Amino acid sequence: MMKKGISVLLVGVFLVGCAQATVAPTSESTIVPAAREPKHLEVTVVIEMHDMFFTDANGVKTNTFRIPSGKTVGIHIVNKGAIEHEIMFGRKLVQEANVPDGYTVSLMENVPADVFVYPSGNKIEVETGGMVEEIELEPGADLWLRVNFPAEAKGTWEIGCFVPGHYEAGMKAVFIIE
3-state secondary structure string, the chain? Predict the structure, then answer.
């Protein structure tokens, strides 16, 4: 998917040095240590990506995530599936050749977010344009966003995976800022 902005590639130990470990993709049954939770969070929300659906922290398939505005929220995004997935936050679906390809309005466009990635050996790519626009995670990879949604962001948004065929298969959920 072609997006405007800068593409930042974060790989495993990139944050602690220049060495790179190569690790084979993990399966859903493989135990991968989770990234450490960032400090100074008031609320924590977990979004797990499985193959063609999202779940909450308890592994329960859900179509709605509720997030408070005005609080420092930690959003832990984990790929528990067997294949690569991505996540975008927005409204108004973009159709490219009659195929869903992102959102015309990005929730994160005017909302600064801290991205926390910890070494796991799996590629984590965050596309930005001064904002978090698209996050791609290989199987077993995870990251944290620390964000404070302003009152102006209140309302109904959506999260979706736009890897070809995933959104159409149901990999989307309502994302409500309250």
Answer: CCCCCEEEEEEHHHHCCCCCCCCCCCCCCCCCCCCCCCCCCCEEEEEEEECCEEECCCCCECCEEEECCCCCEEEEEEECCCCCEEEEEEEEEEEECCEEEEEEEECCCCCCEEEECCCCCCEEEEEECCCEEEEEECCCCEEEEEECCCHHHCEEEEEECCCCCCCCCCCEEEEEEC
